[in-house]
Amino acid sequence: MRDGTWDYEGYDPAQERLRESLCTLGNGYFATRGAAPECAADAVHYPGTYVAGCYSRLTSQVSGREVENEDMVNLPNWLPLRLRTATGTWLTPDTHRLLDHRLRLDLCAGTLERTARYEDEEGRRIAVRQLRLVHMADPHLALLRTEVTAEGWSGSVEIESALDGTVTNSGVERYRSLASRHLKQVRTGTDAPDTIWLHCRTAGSETGIGLAARTVTDAPAVTTDAHTPGRAAQVLRITLTEGRTVTVDKTVALHTSHDPAIKDPMDAAVDRVGRAADFETLLDTHRTAWQQLWRNTELDVPNSAGPILRLHLFHLLQTLSPHTAELDVGVPARGLHGEAYRGHVFWDELFVLPYLNLHFPEVSRALLTYRHRRLERARRSAQDAGHTGAMYPWQSGSDGREETQQLHLNPRSGRWLPDHSRLQHHVGSAIAYNVWQYCEASGDTEFLHTKGLEMLVQIARFWGEFAEYDGTLGRYRIRGVVGPDEYHDAYPGADRPGLDDNAYTNVAAAWVLARTLDVLHELPELVRRDLVERVGLDSAELDLWDDVSRRLHVPFHSGVISQFEGYGDLAELDWAGYRERYGDIRRLDRILEAEGDSVNGYRASKQADVLMLGYLFSPAELGGLFRRLGYEVDEALWRETVDHYLSRTSHGSTLSSLVHGWVLGRARRVEAWTYIHEALHGDVADLQGGTTGEGVHLGAMAGTLDLVQRGLTGLETRGGALRFDPVPLPELSEYGFAIRYRGHRGVQLRLSAGRLHLSVPASDEDPIDVTLADRTVSVAPGESCTLTLPER
Fold it and tell me: What is the pLDDT at residue 786?
């Protein structure tokens, strides 16, 4: 990467899926993978297009059972544009001699440039240069410019421009035995001599999809329609003259029936593409929109980390842009970049919103509103399970019901196994945490006192009732859950799934209860009375919450925090032996199951679990939480806990190295960079072995940005102040970035040479209080300050 671009030289079929994911272009409304326009989906290529929040259901037969899954739909492919010479065969990199091939992803401009030189069967050479964009200013538009040059010959070529509605959801190999045809009632037609259209509906959700494509050229062309079932197409016959470049511009409009203020998605797409400006004008407005985004997310990190962080930021902004603030969508764990996890929403917003809060709080608010709109569904789920409050789903999609599959496939053994990950009820605590973090960073008390507090109360209500009092212990216990680790979903030999007293779940639940009580106590009297009456709160329930928040059980063993009750009784794994036998043991659960064993019997974690507490809470806040619970967790005990789990984690999730790098930055700085480096390269180098080609890991990408923003600076937005407790790392000894804090835009922060420099742009806002160690200074708009960092 150089000068804000990401470059790939040559054509490598084995790397094509990875490059397609990393070269995805999007605008927060929809995104398209960086596939070659002349290639359809096959074993090498996968040109997927996804609209945020567009889901559909299909039923499949799995192991003799009917299984229903909701998927983010792969929409009709708008990319197809291919050419052929008089030989009559379409040129593709897999069927013809490819003399040259380059990809350049321009992060600053939000464009993908592709150059290729083909040779046909008779030795004629053609140079092709393409520039692609998904428009950041008009979220319904996309463009593809193709420049064709004949090298050493003259003659006619045919160029086909198409919209393909025959696509399926087949981008993830392990899902391919499941039903995948989400598009039905595909209709095609021609609206004008240069415009074709396609309309269809999704099979399960009946969402209408409309696309229109206008294709124009700067050379004389004979255009004929070439529609086939499910596919709208036009063929342009053009004469090429040696050395003269012919330009073909394809402008596409995309609408769905979910869009506001339209009657019909096809009519809206045809109208929009007909009114769209020429390519140069649209390219200019698109670049301007990206310039504004980069200005609001200024980031200056030196050496090799900087370019990767910028790529991560690019993909975050393509998935969750200011356009997202107008949508009813959550955070898809794999972005809008592929079909892994079926496009579902998990807890990844826990790693995404803290970054967005300080740059695009309106987007954070919209993502939290997605959760609030599904609060009633979460309450019904709790009620159906015999509980009160809100039980949010582990996997969410269109309407907030639990979307976690009942079965999952182990590719190593070929067996379909029960999936108990729906027992990860800690997702509710993640939502509560994000509500609090957003309101602290933005100062949005209106949201906190309405939608935010309604979610906090119902999540707290769930934990208050779900916790059971154990008279023998004199404490409350949370039983039958699965923690963030995910490897452990039951006790060895147990006849039911779930574990008792997962430390992360219990401490996070105690935090939710305590924080909700704090907010209730600080409410204006009238607001508090209205809320209490509306949700039926009484003093007895509030007293219960307070009691549970102080007496939830946290297990310990051998002087460290136990991941769950009974964890210390599990066997130790022969880590060296398994590494020697298998090499990569990130997915240790699959390895053991294929051997007829189970990871449930061992002290082995997929990813950070107990250590997630050090990711969410500063050392001071975490110590306070444990003291409230009646435990003393000092620095020595926490370091022992970190060491214990560090040596027993396989890092089977991209989030694991991120969390470990964050935590080790404070516990064992010498080793921190190893994990931070892995977190940075998780998708770029596809460290999980083929997973990035199915979609990027958005939480890990955003988490690396937040690592620089909050992790290494120790930045907390708490109590109406910016609080800092920096962790100097030799590998990142100097860096800077800008944030948006409450009403202040473009607050500049820079750490270097043992100093923190902060500059507040001029405005009529109040001064910002800045706290470092035992000092607090007030920085007025238009002023700067430099603080000396305490030695660590």
Answer: 95
